[in-house]
């Protein structure tokens, strides 16, 4: 670990000032400290923001507002979240270990760095760490890597389960700087690597994530999260599916489907949604819709299996939420 200065922000003004000066924000520290120990991250200054008042979970008629400093375990256990937004609770409970969920904040979870063994190995080239140095995963060990949203510059997956659930719920972020607040849809927040993989999101220097806002949904809405992984606990997704359905009888009136473990960002499956909306929720309809989940996929040498796995994962979870399983 490289030397760094550490301060505690006593209020929002101090936190924003520190951010404008180049300090890195820390809450739970479950990602940043880990990467600092491995010298992947080398900030000169770190500021603790846990004194800031971003800890409310507020359910209103039109939206659920989640403070950025709410802990993952707290949000997963909240009665309103468990009953009204089960996909959030399920995604959180399938994330990391109990100890990490007790520490990690919601804002920090969304700001996780990519999942890639080359990114974490400072002896290897990596365009995320050192732009222009190369991406050895493209032709190397890439079983766990992305098949959607990739480029020749980067094929790393986004690691957050929660982000997949929030993308399916059409959630957004409230971010703040000294000039005020701005809202960003989560689908517009994360950036695919393109030719600039070091730019992972659209948060500006010195901005703070204040809250996540999730629009409320019709009473008939159903949701859930399915995670496929190599072992039963404390493991990243090889593939996952967050499914949100609004049904009237057997008919799917609205559908939102997102996938994790397969994209460089949490991946919204709009083509699957279009194939479901207005149709009866039969196995044939659902499986036909799931067949388009892999559109645009670019499998690598070791992860071609993810194309079929994605289709099966989406089909299974849609069937589950539609009540066919």
From TrEMBL:
Domain of life of the native organism: Bacteria
Domain FAD-binding PCMH-type: 1-219
Entry keywords, A to Z: Oxidoreductase
SMART domains per UniProt: CO_deh_flav_C
Molecular function GO labels: FAD binding; oxidoreductase activity
Keyword Oxidoreductase: yes
PANTHER family: OXIDOREDUCTASE, XANTHINE DEHYDROGENASE SUBUNIT C-RELATED
Listed name of the protein: FAD-binding molybdopterin dehydrogenase
Protein's organism: Mycolicibacterium flavescens
């Amino acid at each position: 670990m490289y030397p760094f200065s550490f301060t505690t922000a006593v209020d929002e003004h101090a936190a924003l000032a520190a951010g404008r000066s180049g300090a890195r924000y820390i809450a739970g520290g479950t990602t940043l400290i880990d990467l600092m120990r491995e010298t992947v991250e080398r900030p000169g200054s770190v500021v603790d923001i846990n004194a800031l008042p971003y800890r409310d979970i507020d359910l209103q008629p039109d939206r659920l507002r989640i403070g950025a400093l709410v802990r993952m375990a707290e949000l997963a256990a909240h009665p309103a979240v468990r009953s009204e937004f089960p996909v959030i609770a399920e995604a959180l409970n399938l994330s990391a270990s109990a100890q990490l969920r007790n520490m990690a904040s919601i804002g920090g979870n969304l700001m996780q760095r990519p999942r890639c063994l080359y990114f974490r190995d400072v002896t290897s080239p990596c365009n995320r760490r050192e732009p222009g140095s190369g991406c050895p995963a493209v032709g190397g060990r890439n079983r766990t890597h992305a098949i959607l949203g990739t480029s020749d510059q980067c094929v790393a997956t986004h690691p957050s389960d929660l982000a997949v659930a929030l993308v399916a719920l059409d959630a957004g972020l409230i971010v703040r700087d000294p000039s005020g607040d701005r809202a960003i849809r989560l689908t517009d927040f994360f950036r695919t690597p393109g030719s600039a993989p070091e730019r992972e999101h659209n948060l500006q220097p010195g901005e703070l994530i204040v809250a996540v806002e999730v629009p409320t949904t019709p009473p008939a809405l159903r949701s859930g999260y399915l995670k496929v992984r190599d072992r039963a606990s404390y493991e990243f997704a090889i593939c996952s599916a967050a499914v949100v359905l609004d049904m009237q009888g057997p008919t799917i009136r609205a559908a939102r489907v997102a996938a994790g473990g397969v994209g460089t960002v949490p991946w919204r499956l709009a083509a699957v949604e279009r194939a479901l909306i207005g149709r009866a929720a039969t196995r044939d309809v659902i499986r036909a819709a799931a067949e388009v989940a892999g559109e645009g996929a670019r499998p690598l040498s070791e992860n071609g299996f993810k194309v079929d796995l994605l289709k099966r994962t989406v089909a299974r979870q849609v069937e589950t939420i539609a009540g066919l399983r």
